[in-house]
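Researcher: Next entry in the queue.
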Amino acid sequence: MPTTKHETTEDGRALGTRLAGGGTWTWAYVDASGDREDPQHLAALQRRKAEDTLRAAGADAAVIDTVTAELEETPGVPAPVNRYVLVHDGELVMSEVLPGHMHGPESVGHGAVPDLVPLLAHRPLDVPFLVVEVGRGGGGYRAYRLGHADHPDQREEQQVQGRTDTLHKFQGGGWAHLRWQHHTEELWRQNESEVAAAVQDAVDRLSPRLVIVAGDIRARQLLIAELSKTKATAPLLSEVPIDPRAADASEDGVREHVDIALARVVAQRRHDVEDLLRTHEGRGDGEVAAGLGPVVEALQQAQPAVVVLDPAGFADRAVLALDAAPWIATAPEQALGATVLGAVPAAVGLVRAALLTDAEVVYANTAALPGGAPAAALLRWRTGPAVPGT
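Model: Structure for this entry, 390 residues:
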């Protein structure tokens, strides 16, 4: 029975299905920043270099044109920024703008085993989240999935229009003023209750990891109070002290808040995984594999729920990529009848095998892994003792 929760991304599951089908892959991971001297000239040189590399690797003209056309597109976001392009059997599978500094060296290639290491470094988790904007007359939400914060992948949108016929400020005083103010407050509560019901329905259906709330300050307070009544929803709430609907509002404030909140989710997941590794390793309960060999052996049995690795920690070590289960080996005799596709960098082979066996991939520094190994795994089931009966 599984003992460790894992969070495979939607991209990871889709890529795992494609990887299992074999075929030929073409990829390019390059720096796409435009803040350098003569960026157009540098971009042209970069495309030419990628074209030469792909041609030397045997890619045909159509595939090369597909990749270079994507690299030619302006990212449209501030530097630093990178681009990742992936083509499978001539079909463009992915063309991603990835904000932030590069995670490792540039990678351009063509063959049976794609380099997916940099993609998962930038997109480590599937993080659905909601951005809610509210006013006194209602509000709405947009549902996204973490891809990259500047151009998130929007999944759905809903607006709720509440009553606004009497939501104006009453200028009188005395008892009439108090009654009218109470009426106005009640309308606000009704409106935000309707918005909260729509948001709660989205939370129940989409299981977001974050609910970002922005808008009119009083409307925000009422909505957060309503959503906080649900224990499972309350911890997801993150308030932005900005009303995007105001005339002088900037979208940058909400976007920056979303960026920071999502980064915290990713960092927390890494921390939780590292903590689980330390806990299970300390107990010696057989729920952790540490080191390249043990992790490969576990992957051959589809045993890891989470594969944790430091791509920079393997130096020049390599593994064998196989065309069928067990998908990965350290020596030809471990292939068990599968065809050896070739030797690939250890990180590339581990990431591929993890996706093929529906394991989550988490990157961490070697110093945080058991024994300073460059790879470790949290297992779906325990490994038995080395000596039976002990």
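Model: The first strand starts at residue 25 and ends at 31.
Researcher: Noted, moving on.
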